[in-house]
Design goal:
globular; Rossmann fold; eight-stranded mixed sheet; alpha/beta
């Protein structure tokens, strides 16, 4: 991986392919490698920028900033250093929250948005409290508390489960804890989402146990012009469970 220093944080990223710039943002508590199977299917059409968010993978961490906007600002800084003025931004799960924050803060730099297994609403009070509690547990007991509870919900595919459990186990407790606090504090993006004028793509598995498929359908209802792909029998890790279908869905960015 390559690294660039963005406002004092080393952000690691992979760059592959040629074409329209497309940023692929991983979800929680993972890293850029979740996209590895879909990248070869997309690099002929896109200039792919695939970062590790701060605190994950090979990227650095800043202890004092626990906000989704902080991740989005890192992406903006990365694009600036790469001399990319405008790009499509795609986010998986928490990465979708980051993509939404990017679109809110840097609308002139967005040529398209893709939400993969994600949602536009803020946390309920119960979910927020659960995240904050888990953040404390991670710092006290390590990331294993997340790996054990979350892995079975990511996918019914044993291969994907094994990959995810290993990947989660490699992450740093403070990076995972910061992400939980960031997600708990994020704002609702429902009103913002309905006003987007650029192309929007929604991909959701109908067997997603972490973010139910109704959240994907709600996004489509909020923005009828969005292209919506619902993957039958697939869970939260669509890009690993059905990479060909995900790559085909992204062709909508090429034709838009």
């Amino acid at each position: 991986m390559e690294k660039l220093n963005i406002d004092g944080i080393d952000i690691a990223y992979v760059r592959r392919g040629k074409g329209n710039p497309l940023v692929l943002i991983h979800g929680y508590p993972l890293d850029h490698t979740i996209w590895d199977e879909v990248v070869p299917l997309m690099e002929k059409d896109f200039d792919l920028i695939i970062p590790d968010l701060r605190g994950f993978g090979e990227s650095g961490i800043m202890e004092s900033d626990n906000s989704i906007l902080g991740y989005a600002t890192d992406i903006a800084g990365l694009l600036s250093q790469l001399k990319i003025k405008k790009a499509s931004i795609a986010g998986h799960s928490m990465g979708g929250y980051v993509a939404l924050a990017f679109a809110r803060e840097f609308p002139d730099r967005v040529s398209g948005l893709a939400m993969v297994s994600s949602q536009i609403g803020a946390d309920t009070p119960e979910t927020k409290e659960s995240r904050l509690s888990t953040a404390k547990q991670v710092m006290e007991k390590g990331v294993s508390v997340v790996a054990e509870s979350m892995t079975p919900k990511l996918s019914a595919d044993k291969r994907v489960q094994d990959f995810a459990q290993h990947l989660i186990g490699k992450q740093r407790p403070n990076g995972v804890s910061n992400a939980l606090n960031s997600m708990a504090g994020r704002s609702d993006s429902s009103e913002l989402f309905g006003k987007f004028k650029f192309p929007v793509l929604i991909i959701h598995g109908d067997a997603d146990l972490l973010i139910p498929v109704k959240r994907g359908r709600e996004m489509k209802a909020a923005l009828p012009a969005a292209q919506y792909f619902e993957l039958a029998g697939r869970g939260h890790m669509a890009m690993m469970e059905k990479p060909e279908a995900v790559a085909n869905a992204f062709q909508s960015f090429v034709s838009s």
